[in-house]
Amino acid sequence: MRNITTSALLLAVAFFTTSANALDSSNTPVVVTPLASKTTTASGQPITLPQKNVEVQVSSYKIAPGAILPVHKHPFPRYAYVEQGTLKVTNVETGAANTYKTGDFIVEMIGQWHQATNTGTDPVKLLVIDQVKQGAKNTILQN
User: Fold this and answer.
1) pLDDT tens digits, one per residue of 29-85
2) Do residues 67 and 117 lie in contact, with contact meaning Cβ atoms separated by under 8 Å?
3) Which conformational region is residue 133 in: left (phi greater than 0), alpha (psi within -120 to 50 degrees), or beta?
């Protein structure tokens, strides 16, 4: 068990070092490119996690051109990496909107009603990571 914990710690350190210092087991360089570092959500809220029984859920989304997602909110942190396309996310409570493009990282707002629209001509592809209380869902649709 100690070896597994030590290996996990070393792997984590490798991911957070610069590319010049990151090496695999054969001393071949591993290129690590930081994509984002955030402490707040898209609407400026501090990022906080569930305090116990956290479950990480990973999903892939494909949103067709012109698609408009229903108004919804997330009770727990949700992160998304835009693999392809252009997505406009509007906070329906404040009217503030952000547009995200290929390569952008999104820290979604928590507990605020919002809506997303694919404003481009290509599908939007997202890699989505949720951190929820174990067994919980992270999307609530507005009635």
Assistant:
1) 888 888 888 999 999 998 887 888 999 999 999 999 999 999 999 999 999 999 999
2) yes
3) beta
Q: Which helix (H) or strand (E) holds 127?
A: strand 124-133
Query: Whole-angstrom Cα distance, residue 13 to residue 77?
Result: 24
Whether 4 shows a pLDDT value over 90: the answer reads: no
DSSP codes of every residue in 70-105: PPEE-SS-EEEEEEESEEEEEETTT--EEEEETT-E
pLDDT at 119 over 60: yes
> Which alpha helices (DSSP H) does the chain contain, by range?
2-15
Q: Is 103 left (phi over 0), alpha (psi -120 to 50) or beta?
A: left
Is the pTM higher than 0.85? The answer reads no
Backbone φ and ψ for 4, nearest 5 degrees, come out as -65, -45
Task: Give the span between the Cα atoms of 133 and 55, in whole angstroms.
Answer: 6
- Sorted by sequence, the CB contacts under 8 Å of residue 131 that are 6+ apart come out as 49, 50, 54, 55, 56, 76, 77, 78
- Per 3-state DSSP, the chain is made up of helix, strand and coil in percentages (nearest 5) of 10, 40, 50
